[in-house]
Amino acid sequence: MQKLPFVIAIACALSNLSVSPCVAGALLDRVKQRGSVTCAAVQRPGLAKITGGEWRGMLLDYCRAIALGALGPEGRIDFRELETPLQYDGARAGDDDVLFLTGTEIVENDLSGAVLPGPVVYRQAHAALVEETSPIRKLEEIANKSVCFLQTTATAKSLEFWLGHNKLNILRVPFEEPIEFLDAYNVRRCAVAVGEETELAEVKARRGVQKFSSRILPEKIAVFPIFAATPIQDAQWSALVAYTVMALQAAERPQTDWSNGGAKALSINGAAIGLDKSWQTRVVDAFGGHAAIYDRNLGEGSPLRLPRGVDALWSDGGLGAPAYAE
Predict the structure, then answer these.
(1) According to a count of CB atoms within 10 Å of the terminal CB, is the N or C end of the chain lower?
(2) Helix %, strand %, coil % for the chain, to 5?
(3) Can you say whether the dihedral through the CA atoms of 7, 8, 9, 15 is positive or negative?
(4) pLDDT digits (tens, 9 = 90+) for 246-265
(5) Residues 193 and 260 in one domain
(6) pLDDT tens digits for range 121-141
(7) Residue 326 located in a structural domain
(8) Is the pTM here over 0.90, yes or no?
C-alpha cells in the first residue's frame, strides 16, 4: 500500500491528455458529492438488461457493490446503456464512473485513451444453440448444417475464424436484425443458432412460439472477457473499483482450517484508497461473493439457469482464478 501514490503518479503521467486532468481522488470526490455511482454497459441478458422497466443483472450487483463500498448503505447507483454513438460520446468524455466493456467495445468505440480496463467481471462466450432432439452433440457437428447468426457482429467474426481454423463449412443463414434471427430459429429455419451465450440462454428459456426445448452445446466458439473499466484519469478510483471486484471474487474461496475464505480471503487496507475499515465485510455480507451473484442472475436461481462453464473457478474446470492472500 505504501507504493500507491507512486502508482497514481505514473498513471497520471501516462494518461491521455485529451481527457480530464489526472487528480488523485477526483472521481471518488465526485461520487461522494453526487451520492451515487454511475455505471454503463451494453444490454445483455443476465448481465445488464432492462426488464419490466428496471435494470437487472450481474453487472447491476457489481455496480451496487462498488457504491456500497465507496458510499456505505446510503449509496445509490445510476445505470445507463451503451449502444448508440451518442452514448459512447459520454463514455469518452468521462461521464461514467464504471463501464463494463469487452475488448471489442473498447477498440471499436475509440475508448482506449479514455478508459482503463480493470478486473474481469464475467467471461462471455460465443456458443451454439440446437433443438433438444437434435442429433448434434459436439460443436464440430454443425458442419454442413444451416446456421443462423447476426452478420457484422463479433459473433459472426468468431464463427468465421472458428470455421477456418477447423477447416469446416456451414450453410450460412445471416440476419441483420435480432428479431429476424430469433424468429428464424424459433420456426426451425435453421438447425443451429450462434450468438452470445447469455442471449442463447434467454432464447432457450423462452422456448419461442412453437415451445420446443433447446440446449446450448458445451464447447464454445470463442470466449472473451467483460472488464470493469474506469475513466483513465484517476488511478485511486480505478484501484477502489478493482479491489471491490477482487474482494467479491476472492470471497468464493471457502474458509478452511488452513486458509482464509469469504471476506478474509483477500484483506485489503482500504484507507489508502478512500475506503473505511469495514468496507470489505459490508460488501461481501451484502452480495455473498461472485458465486452467489452468478447464481441469482445467470445460474440456477435465475430464469436462464446457465451453468458456470468457463466462468467457474479453475478448480471446477473454468477459467476463474481470483486473487487471495494466505
Answers:
(1) C
(2) 40, 20, 40
(3) positive
(4) 999 988 876 655 555 555 65
(5) no
(6) 999 999 999 999 999 999 999
(7) no
(8) no
